[in-house]
Amino acid sequence: MNRIENLKKLEIETKTWDIAVIGGGASGLGVALDALSRGLSVVLVEKADFAKGTSSRSTKLVHGGVRYLAQGDVMLVLEALKERGRLLQNAPHLTHNQPFIIPIYTFFDRLQYSIGLKIYDWMAGRLRLGKSRFISKAETLSRLPQIKQDGLKGGVVYHDGQFDDARLALSIAITCNEMGGNMLNYTKVNALVKNQKGKITGIQVRDLIGKKNYKIKARMVVNATGVFADKILQLDQPDAPKSIQPSQGIHLVLDKSFLGGNDALMIPKTSDGRVLFAVPWQDKLVVGTTDTLREKAKLEPEALSKEIDFVLETAAAYMVKTPTKADVLSVYAGLRPLAAPKEGSTKTKEISRSHKVIVSESGLTSITGGKWTTFRKMGEDTVEKFTTVTGENIKPSASANIHYRGYTTAPQKGHWQGYGADAATIQKMIEENPQFSNLLHPSYPYTEAEVVWAVKNEMAMKVEDLLARRIRILFLDAKAAIAMAPKVAEIMARELKMDETWIEQAITDFEKTANKYILK
């Protein structure tokens, strides 16, 4: 992906794109992928970096949603299980089968979860990742060595998927780019362009880096901005009612030793009825999540102290070694774009996790709600509205079997896995330029070559793009990320042909963001 080349394509004033997508997270990428699979032309603009918002802040699970099954949302779970299977097939370098263990303390729990998870297995059909089963107390303790033993009767094992959310987003963005899509980060929509009949004919955007404005003509405009959907809806109709209710989920990242082993822990019912996960991820342990209603959508949401306390206290009830704030390597918060509830309903678990596609009178098509696992289906359902908006027929969707950039069934182990087939190319760069083998931090395996690669091929424009989403160190160890920033800024400046002033500002900007990931 070359940003300069992609911006040049916006200068062709005579070009009318089939679809202009606003938003470079899971929803927008799903729309772009599906539209391109049908032979439609696509331009996608994102005001920050790809997956900067909710799409890089998940629990890292590709899952059907065990808790939605408990709530009776059978259709959502069926759809998600089908899409889970497809994701694992299309991106084996970025996804894998993750066993979970639910600790069992009563006979009723054993019965309830054994039956519920057998139904979950059955619903997944041939795309099932493994059989759920009851395991003894001894096996539970051998697989989760740091779990408390008091009253433990055994565990129920089940299987779900795990993934690297931000790198998957990037892999899909590059795939779309290779399919002819015009993918742009740091490009903000300032206005919707309408004809005399009030129908949308395009968008006005500003390149936030080059400080230049562009007018993009499009037959269909898609609002896929997640928690920020209402801002675009208000550009269309200033008095548009609120359609999104942001719900905050936070995660604490701890050393993997707090759980031990490679299995994930799932607590289906915490003290306030929420689900808690403790999932091994990239040699750390991700513990979460919460479900707190927030009034305002923020690009960089922050964990509330009550949420941090809740996660630590709940985890402590199940772990031998009590985690404290001092043990937290990184804390991150994400906002779920839930469909706004009907009057009088405030509980987030009563708000649907399903997605909705809405077409306004002007033709603006908005995709709201949904979850990462079903991103492709969300895209398909949105693109289906192309005929409604334009009156033109389109080819059937062909996005279900597209392999994403880096696809390989034999990825390398460790941090190279996320690059898939591209890992060998980066390693060849190191062979040809031995200085590229220098580590960015003595405790982590990331190399200088990866910074060069990210700038040249993955549209990394800022230090945060690199440290938060190209390599995931900000989410794994925020203090280590801050220590890496000066070296990363220096390499990026060399590749982007920037000066010392840029380097200083880039480090300052990154530190300001990274400090929010550290518990004081």
Automatic annotation (TrEMBL):
Q: Where is the Alpha-glycerophosphate oxidase C-terminal domain?
A: 416-500
Keywords on record? FAD, Flavoprotein, Glycerol metabolism, Oxidoreductase
What the entry lists under InterPro entries is as follows: DAO_C, DAO_C_sf, FAD-dep_OxRdtase, FAD/NAD-bd_sf, G3P_DH_FAD-dep
Tell me the cofactors it needs: FAD
- Note the superkingdom of the native organism: Bacteria
Q: Which residues form the FAD dependent oxidoreductase domain?
A: 18-374
UniProt cross-references to Pfam families, sorted A to Z: DAO, DAO_C
Could you say which protein family the record assigns here? Belongs to the FAD-dependent glycerol-3-phosphate dehydrogenase family.
Protein's recorded name: FAD-dependent oxidoreductase
